[in-house]
């Protein structure tokens, strides 16, 4: 045997047995057999579980599952991957929520494509860190190619750049950080105000249906508590350009600098896309930064039939995309794109040990200069292998299919007297509620819908989301699985109607008595 055939079980000369045993777990050339075995055993376990999964969720409650987890003695290792996987089955896999299941209809979690899972396995084994070239080499170049590719799909022009992030929340945060710096500099150049005073006056405009991470970011960025102004939406839950114009004008009159308008291309609840061309016109006229939050709608970038829904996005100053939503990528995979690469300098700090300023002159590509993270996963590899194996059209095909399905689901609900359905989504959500028959039960509609959602989840038969519309409780399907059929949806609607109907039956007579008394 060669030196490299040296097996993990043989202690190296002069190495204490405990040390040799610990070292045998390190991923390296000596331990490839262990690596192969562990990963294939893990994949086998997940595959077996998926083959046996009949429901998206077991319905287990936190109080029943918690003792299983807390009962494990972390001081007492099992030493055996297979025993650890058996245990994992009990504390996690058996009761996990499975997004690949066609009756998982709740949040913006997609089933994932296999090329991306392959990427996930590769990237975590090699473990490149995307902060500097000297920790990543080709990984940095691959991420940059994908940023250029995405910026190209958006149409941001030759000066564009960007960086991968951990998610839409972080992408939105960074976009607002960049816009805050630009707005502060502009306001301080115009007036004698201090930075502190400017910060307290900055405003961000987003629609009522915009994502809550905008408010969270404003707080993190030190803006005033009332810095985020909600712009009115139309009945389709899209920002009203006239309302935006009004707010921009009001801010101008009150001398409140607007640091950004955040338009949403795919609102989380309604899948609505703000009228980007009109919003871009208004931003251009007012000289205001336009950020487009396309965390959800970014899948349209690869659609062969609906790309036009994103028309106007190419005029944004910055764009958020979440590949882990509509590109069928595992968590995490997101990016922030900017029209003008130079604005990323607001995230640049130099550390002697990591990315000294001289490296910029030497043209060494250090992504940390553009990121608010330091150590950072090579999440881009998942998208890379997805594009190299499937291609963008195939991803677009998957997204188009769920958008079509949502339209069919909407029509199904609109024709069903048991339900009331809200605006028709431009993407793949359907917001609706069970509508109790005329009579005293009507007043229980909110509670009945809340109850139906919980009862459904506890049964594990299906998982749906809930949200509030104009103060009332509604249910929501977020369709991201092309395997979800209209039959699945019809079946889930029956289950919801049964749960909600039973809730009303059990309580409506009581209520009638109460009223009569
Ligand atoms: C999901 C979502 C976000 C947040 O993205 P995360 O990846 O969950 O951090 C932001 N904006 C919109 C419109 C979203 O749907």
Automatic annotation (TrEMBL):
Record SUPFAM superfamilies: PLP-dependent transferases
Protein biosynthesis as UniProt keyword: no
Cofactor(s) required, per the database record: pyridoxal 5'-phosphate
Sections of the chain in a coiled coil: none
Gene3D superfamilies per record: Aspartate Aminotransferase, domain 1 (3.90.1150.10), Type I PLP-dependent aspartate aminotransferase-like (Major domain) (3.40.640.10)
This protein's UniProt keywords: Aminotransferase, Decarboxylase, Lyase, Pyridoxal phosphate, Transferase
A Pfam family it matches: Pyridoxal_deC
GO terms for MF: transaminase activity
Family per record: Belongs to the group II decarboxylase family.
Protein name: Aspartate aminotransferase family protein
Taxonomic source organism: Microtetraspora glauca
